[in-house]
Input
Amino acid sequence: MPVLPARSVAELMAFYAPLGFTARADPPPNSGYAIIGRGGIELHLHHSPDVDPLRTASSCYLYVTGADALFAEWKAVGVVTDPVTGSRLAPPQDTAYGMREFALVDPSGNLLRIGSPR
Output
């Protein structure tokens, strides 16, 4: 499972909620850890207050069945480039290795590459 650093776990949970992610378990109080999921996708978030979203090198790859449809859904809920948080959504592209992929950078600087077969 991807374990992504979060300046604030609550901030990332709020960021991912409109994208269809919900809490999978109640973390112990003050644990600084949360598990969120959407369908078969699960992300683990851990509190890392020193994360610099402009320098974070965390990333993960999410394999989905319809990258274009998911991109359109996320764009429709308003995930766009945000100069305040640094979050951004890059449009789908075809790869040389047969995938259709797009990218999302969250407010803590984590890169999610999302892809499906062409």
About this structure: The helical segments are 9-16, 67-76. The chain has a mean pLDDT of 89.
